[in-house]
Amino acid sequence: MVSVRPSGREQRPCRAVTGPLVVTATLAALTVGLPLPGVGATPPDGDITRTEIARGDTLTPVSINTDGDATLLVQGLRLGPGANSGWHTHPGPEYSVITVGTVVLQTAAECVPVHYGPGQAVFIPAGVPHLVANEVGQDAQVVITYTLPVNAPVRGDSPDVCAK
Questions:
Q1: What is the Cα–Cα distance from 105 to 99, expressed in whole angstroms?
Q2: Model confidence over 149-161: pLDDT tens digits?
Q3: CA distance linking residue 10 with residue 151, whole number of Å
Q4: Rounded CA Rg of the chain
Q5: 64-122 pLDDT per residue, tens
Q6: 21, part of any domain
Q7: Total structural domains in the chain?
Q8: What is the CATH number for 112?
Q9: Is 106 inside any structural domain?
Q10: Could you tell me the residue range of the domain that residue 118 belongs to?
């Protein structure tokens, strides 16, 4: 629809102006006053050393949920050649990173032995019976982190749920 102004000039309906320039200007206006990344940050000061103990990748989703107070426990595990953990469970989730050698994990969920090597991470949900073994001729080492209910034992023995 076109209307005519008293001056005799046509008056066209307004259109919303959109385009890269308008979007950029809008974003710029919205970010005025926001702190820039790193501005005002405080760098480390004094004699500080950060040591990476273990790093591993997993394709398994990881979730931490607690029903109350929790204890975070980090352990180093060494399995000599032929050693195994025996079937057991934990009252909270276990997150492990293999740092040296190879371990074989069996869980009650599948009973299929799965091999993990250095740089791989394993997540075992609370209460899942499992066994970890070293089936090769050299030591295996694992860094394990547990999230446990306060004052709960780290592990409980479990029957071999995969025995035939």
A1: 15
A2: 999 999 999 999 9
A3: 82
A4: 29
A5: 888 889 999 999 999 999 999 999 999 999 999 999 999 999 999 889 999 999 999 99
A6: no
A7: 1
A8: 2.60.120.10
A9: yes
A10: 70-157
